Amino acid sequence: MTIADVKKSTEQKMSKSIESLRADLAKVRTGRAHTGILDHVQVDYYGSPTQLSQVANLTLIDARTIGVQPFDKKMLAVIEKAIREADLGLNPATQGDLIRVPTPALTEERRKEMVKLVKGEAEDTKISIRNIRRDANEGLKKLVKDKVCSEDDERRGQEDIQKLTDKFVAEVDKLVVEKEKEVLTV
Fold first, then answer.
1. What's the rounded Cα separation, in Å, for the pair 1 and 16?
2. pLDDT in tens, 111-148
3. Which among 161, 155, 128, 130 has a CA at the least distance from the CA of 143?
4. Fewer Cβ neighbours under 10 Å: the N or C end of the chain?
5. How many angstroms separate the Cα of 45 from the Cα of each of 48, 71, 130, 140?
6. How far, rounded to the nearest angstrom, does the alpha carbon of residue 83 sit from its chain's CA centroid?
7. Contact at 8 Å (CB) between 38 and 66?
8. Residue 33 near residue 64, CB atoms below 8 Å
9. Could you tell me whether strands 93-95 and 98-102 are parallel, antiparallel, or unpaired per DSSP bridges?
10. What is the spatial distance between Cα 2 and Cα 169, in angstroms, rounded to a whole number?
11. Does pLDDT of 33 surpass 70?
């Protein structure tokens, strides 16, 4: 393993942390309905927990309503129950073979809670990035100890890894500002 390998591995891990944050932020509800809200809802599909998107077609009926149309009509009650119990504050209603999921308007208080949630997710991602930096620096120290590289190379490697860390932390901050603006916009 070389310094370049350590840097490359570190950058890949930090990129994955950012992608994970983007996915988590997509689940945070804004004032509008979007099918991503239901991404993590699990349905009991004949005895095995299955993602809602695997057993039903999710569509937007209008700006505040999500339509859920099960592929199997027998799943209507099960899907409705799963959405209600997903702790999303949603109250689905069945109309024929379609489940309508109205998303209530966010109150100012709820919006502020969402912003806190977003900032918490961001802080978790920053901690993850710093842990990746620490692991990379330990890897560099191990290379010096194994006499694969010099201490000067290690120091330059640590500086490069710190630059990567700063870049990804700035990316996290940028994503948080965007999402905060999106959540607080009425």
1. 21
2. 888 888 889 999 999 999 999 999 999 999 999 999 88
3. 155
4. C
5. 5, 11, 40, 48
6. 19
7. yes
8. yes
9. antiparallel
10. 25
11. yes
Residues 6 or more apart whose Cβ sits within 8 Å of residue 16: none
CA distances, 80 to each of 35, 55, 85, 91, 185 (Å): 15, 12, 9, 9, 30
The answer to whether 165 and 135 are in contact (CB under 8 A) is: no
What per-residue confidence (pLDDT) applies to 85? 86
SS3 sequence of 131-146 = HHHHHHHHHHHHHHHC
User: Structure pTM?
Assistant: 0.70
> 140 Cβ partners below 8 Å, 6+ apart?
3, 6, 149, 154, 157, 158, 161
Q: Which amino acid, 165? A: T
Helix (H, G, I), strand (E, B) or coil at 101: strand
The reported pLDDT for the residue numbered 30 is 66
Residue identified by tokens 């999500």 is 66
d(C-alpha 26, C-alpha 59), whole Å? 16
> Are 82 and 41 within 8 A, CB to CB?
yes
- Cα–Cα nearest to 17, from 164, 144, 185, 179: 164
Q: What is the 3-state secondary structure (H, E, C) of 63-99?
A: CCEEEEEECCHHHHHHHHHHHHHCCCCCCCEEECCEE
